[in-house]
Write a structure and sequence with these properties.
Elements: E1 6-12, E2 16-20, E3 26-31, E4 41-46, E5 49-55, H1 61-69, E6 76-80, E7 99-103, E8 105-112, E9 115-121, E10 131-137
Parallel strand pairs: 1-10
Antiparallel strand pairs: 1-4, 2-3, 4-5, 6-7, 8-9, 9-10
InterPro entries: MIZ1-like_pln (IPR006460)
Pfam families: DUF617
Organism: Brassica carinata (Ethiopian mustard)
Length: about 140
C-alpha cells in the first residue's frame, strides 16, 4: 500500500432459485432477497485484475481470540506472532504461524441494495483513501 491506491472489487451474481409457495406451487426464476454481505461466493479483482475467488465464512473461537488480542490497537498494521491465543492455522499463506493485521477506520457508502463500498480513511494524508473495497452484485 506504500506504492499507492489499492482497489479490491468483490463481485457476485444475482441468484435465481425455485421458491415453494404456501399453496404448494413452485415459482421458478425468483430472485431471493439477501443482504449483500451475506453472499456466499465472490469473484475477486485487485486493481482491475482478476485474482481468484473469495468465500464468506462465519467467525469461530479462534478468530475471536485474534480480535481479542487486537482489542487495544486503534489503528495500524503489523504482524502478530503465533501464540496459543492467536493460533488459527490453515491460512495457506506460509507465514510461519504469524498473522498479519490491518486496523483502520472505514467509511461505508451504500450505492444500492446491490452495491456497497468501503474506503479506508487515512488521517495522515489529504483525505484520499489508500484502500477501497467494493461489493457488487451483478
Amino acid at each position: 500500500m506504500a506504492s499507492g491506491l489499492v482497489r479490491i472489487a468483490l463481485e457476485c451474481d444475482k441468484t435465481k432459485e425455485e421458491v415453494k409457495e404456501e399453496n404448494g406451487n413452485r415459482r421458478h426464476g425468483v430472485t431471493i432477497p439477501r443482504r449483500l454481505v451475506e453472499e456466499p461466493v465472490w469473484r475477486t479483482y485487485c486493481n482491475g485484475k482478476k485474482c481468484g475467488f473469495a468465500a464468506r465464512r462465519e467467525s469461530g473461537e479462534k478468530e475471536k481470540k485474534v480480535l481479542k488480542a487486537l482489542e487495544m490497537v486503534s489503528m495500524g498494521a503489523g504482524v502478530l506472532p503465533e501464540t496459543e491465543e492467536t493460533a488459527i492455522g490453515g491460512g495457506g499463506g506460509g507465514g510461519g504461524g504469524e498473522i498479519m493485521y490491518m486496523r483502520a477506520k472505514f467509511e461505508r457508502i451504500v450505492g444500492s441494495r446491490d452495491s456497497e463500498a468501503f474506503y479506508m480513511m487515512n488521517p495522515d494524508s489529504n483525505g484520499a483513501p489508500e484502500l477501497s473495497i467494493y461489493l457488487l452484485r451483478i
